[in-house]
Amino acid sequence: MRFVVCVKEVPESIVVKIDLTNNKIQDESISTTLNPFDQFILEEALKLKKDEDKVIAISIGTPQTKKILMKCLALGADKAILLSDNVFIGSDTFATAYTLSKVINKIGDFDIIFCGQQTVDGNTAQVGPELAAHLKIPQVTYVESISKFEGKKLFVKSQTDDGFKIVESQIPVLLAGIPPSSFTPSLPPLRNIIAAQNKPCIIWNFEDLGGPKDKYGSVGSLIQITKVYYPPPREKGIMIVEEPITAVEKLIELLTKDKVI
Amino acid sequence: MLGKAKELANELKQDICAVIIGSEIRKFCNVLSTFGANKIFIAEDDALKEYNTEIYTPILTRIILKHKPNILLFPATKIGRDLAPRVASTLKLGLAADCIKLTIQNGKLLMTRPVYGDNILADIICPNTRPQMATIRAKMMEKAEPKQNESAEVIKEPVNINVDSFKTIVKEKKKTSIPGVKSIDEADIIISGGRGVGSKETFKFIEELADVLNAAVGASRAAVEAGWKPKSCQVGQSGTTVSPKIYIACGISGTTQHLVGMKGSDVIIAINKDPEAPIFEVANYGIVGDLKEVVPLLTKALKEKKMGGYKIQ
Ligand SMILES: Cc1cc2nc3c(=O)[nH]c(=O)nc-3n(C[C@H](O)[C@H](O)[C@H](O)COP(=O)(O)OP(=O)(O)OC[C@H]3O[C@@H](n4cnc5c(N)ncnc54)[C@H](O)[C@@H]3O)c2cc1C
Ligand SMILES: Nc1ncnc2c1ncn2[C@@H]1O[C@H](COP(=O)(O)O)[C@@H](O)[C@H]1O
User: Fold this and answer.
1) In a domain, A237, yes or no
2) In terms of CATH architecture, what is B2-165?
3) Helix axes B53-67, B78-90, angle to 10 degrees
4) B221 lines ligand 1 (CB under 6 A)
5) What H or E segment, with its residue span, contains residue A132?
6) Pairing of strands A163-170, A153-160
7) What is the Cα–Cα distance from A75 to A196, expressed in whole angstroms?
8) Are strands A163-170 and B168-175 parallel, antiparallel or unpaired?
9) Among A212, B14, B48, B287, which residue carries the largest CB count within 10 Å?
10) pLDDT tens readout for residues B16-32
11) How many angstroms does the Cα of residue A6 sit away from the middle of ligand 2?
């Protein structure tokens, strides 16, 4: 079996600043990490992996994204592919999904594609389903666990708006994963971090993927960001530091005065 | 959603259409027309009872290609966020996720959505493809005024389903939300408890307060992890994003992952014994104190106030 896991480099903290000179998010100096949703689904893929199976981690990013892929290798992935080229800059989810589909088709045979449900920075949750549509394979999103895998059939538990469902799917399929509340990301032991150095981490650019250039990056994108800005600040709140009974009285008085209740 | 659609349609002088896919759905036509839909496209079949991406996508894409809408809105629920990108990518359309504001600018839809949690907003347009698509946080938009005696034109859409070709099947479905208990994504008031609540037993303080206010009960991830509340109650990055009129956070510290899920609430009230807790930075009203004392007192006071003839909005 061949499993492909799509991973993204994201800022460690989502409290970022806007560079007011060019209206872009200041992302050069911030420290980054593996998107936690992606780490979760990678760990699920690794749990499923048997000896003869291969797990390939792929990411579109900058040369420094290699750091994230090395972490995937240390966690247990067999091979990593980094897509890095100026042509890919400015991709919306449609162009990102298109690029990922080109990579996956170049890799060739695959059985399960794994994505995080969403990224902590963009938080669109769109790349997974859009990629599945490009690849013309079914998708299951909000996957919390893979309960059974036998032959060409997979059983997954996925969250719904009011609970959960168990879905049976044939492979190939794309699964977009969301960690259950009990999940804590593992830290790879030092031994594995060293061993990862000997695993293949390939870098591909636009020429390696081929195809019309205008399908990639900002040119291939269908939406356009016209402005980024800070939301209006919330009004400064009122703090009540009193004995409980007085505090409650005061709160109700304020809520009534402000017509909240 | 219809409220927002109506506003946009009026500005553009276009129709407001609704699409319903499912089984036994005709009963919804009435409400939809009361809330402003001029046309309703319905795709009805027993096989459509449970939502399944694989079945719903071809039905919806066919409706889009046939009726060529200018704007297409989905709720930013789990189903909406599963279906919208699949449809968008199939038809090669641009899509903006989880929007909190929609306006018309130079005849085009301007979509505003939060990125990096709710720390930054981005304005987005979809220059070349139609329909312009967005998933929206429905609670953020003003509800339409219902009008009685309005009747929409109901248009039946063909449904061709070949059950044998499905690659995915829903085997089992469970609601973890308890029937009759308000769910957090529809409530106007939410009372949430965090690790500070301390135990499943003490969560009853939160539930009693919710009861008086006719509110839903929410929880932080720590409280869900502890097994005090089901996952469907979790507010935040890996739970549900909510934006009720009133959000009361009890014993919740206010980590960024929690804040992104509730910062859009109109009024935030926080009860925490730590005056330095970050939740106070977003709270309109903050009480520094032990929730085990404050919450029951608040419940009692509100109960008395309610009996005194005041209305809790
Ligand atoms: C990828 C990822 C996704 C996540 N997603 C979510 C999410 O969706 N939602 C979410 O909530 N979290 C999420 N988290 C977890 C988040 O980082 C925090 O761990 C969690 O929100 C903490 O919950 P808490 O505020 O209840 O607990 P704590 O941070 O432990 O805070 C408890 C608070 O209660 C106060 N307190 C204690 N006792 C009392 C008392 N008697 N009276 C009054 N106050 C008291 C304390 O002062 C403290 O401020 C996520 C984390 C990660 C890494
Ligand atoms: N640049 C990227 N490279 C690889 N995978 C990505 C990239 N962007 C998004 N993804 C995948 O798509 C998922 C959803 O991302 P998003 O739609 O941006 O919220 C992520 O969790 C990743 O699995």
Assistant:
1) no
2) 3-Layer(aba) Sandwich (3.40)
3) 60
4) yes
5) helix A127-135
6) antiparallel
7) 9
8) antiparallel
9) B287
10) 999 999 999 999 999 99
11) 6
Q: Nearest-CA residue of chain A relative to B53?
A: A139
Set of chain A residues whose Cβ sits within 8 Å of the Cβ of B290 = 244
Considering its fold, how many domains does chain A have in total? 1
**B189-307: in CATH 3.40.50.1220:** yes
The CA distance from A69 to the nearest CA of chain B, in Å, is: 22
- Asked whether this chain's domains B2-165 and B189-307 adopt the same fold, the reply is yes
Planar angle of CA B114, B116, B121, nearest 5 degrees:
30
pLDDT of residue B310: 55
Question: Residues A234, B282: contact at Cβ < 8 Å?
Answer: yes
Q: What are phi and psi of A160, to 5 degrees?
A: -115, 180
DSSP characters over A81-122: EEE--GGGTT--HHHHHHHHHHHHHHH---SEEEEES--TTT
- Cα B242 to Cα B236: distance, rounded to the nearest angstrom: 8
The ipTM estimated for the assembled molecules is 0.90
In angstroms, the separation between the Cα of residue B193 and the nearest Cα of chain A is 15
Any domain includes A239: no
Ranges under pLDDT 70 in chain B: 177-180, 308-313
d(CA B143, CA B185): 15
Structural domain boundaries of chain B? 2-165, 189-307
End-to-end CA distance of chain B: 22
Domain assignment of residue A246, yes or no: no
Q: Would A153 be classed as within a structural domain?
A: yes
What's the token pair of residue A241? 């530091």
Cβ-proximal residues to B271 (8 Å cutoff; 6+ apart), any chain: B248, B249, B250, B251, B286, B287, B289, B291, B294, B295
Q: How far apart are CA A193 and CA A72, in angstroms?
A: 10
Range of the domain at A207: 2-215
* Amino acid identity, position B232: S
CATH number for position A22: 3.40.50.620
Q: What is the pLDDT of residue B313?
A: 46
Q: Given CB atoms, is B174 within the 8 Å cutoff of chain A?
A: yes
DSSP B248-309: EEES----HHHHTTTTT-SEEEEEES-TT-GGGGT-SEEEES-HHHHHHHHHHHHHHHHHTT
Confidence of residue A67 (pLDDT cuts 50, 70, 90): very high
Q: Rounded to two decimals, what is the model's pTM?
A: 0.89
Residue A175 near residue A41, CB atoms below 8 Å: yes
HSE-up (13 A, CA, CB side) for residue B299: 19
State how far the Cα of A143 lies from the Cα of B79, in Å rounded to an integer: 13
